[in-house]
Amino acid sequence: MPQIIPIKDLKNTSEVSERCHSIDEPVFITKNGYGDMVIMSIEAYEKMAYMNDIYEKIQQGEKSIDNNRVMTAKQSVEELRSKYEI
């Protein structure tokens, strides 16, 4: 369940930092009852960035398949052998 706290709670920085590290996911900050900011630990951010990179690479691979820009493993090995003369 997402953690949501009012912006006034940011005054207690140690508690907010502890909360961000303990739940390992973003904490949503509200201002006057509306969403305003999101904060998270560096570890959670790096994990999210890593997963986004993986999803992007999967999407690129699927796009290559859709555009028929793929080859079999055998074709790939033959191309490498020809290129490097091995």
Automatic annotation (TrEMBL):
This is Antitoxin. Signal peptide: none annotated. Pfam families: PhdYeFM_antitox. Antitoxin component of a type II toxin-antitoxin (TA) system. InterPro entries: Antitoxin_Phd/YefM, YefM-like_sf. Belongs to the phD/YefM antitoxin family.
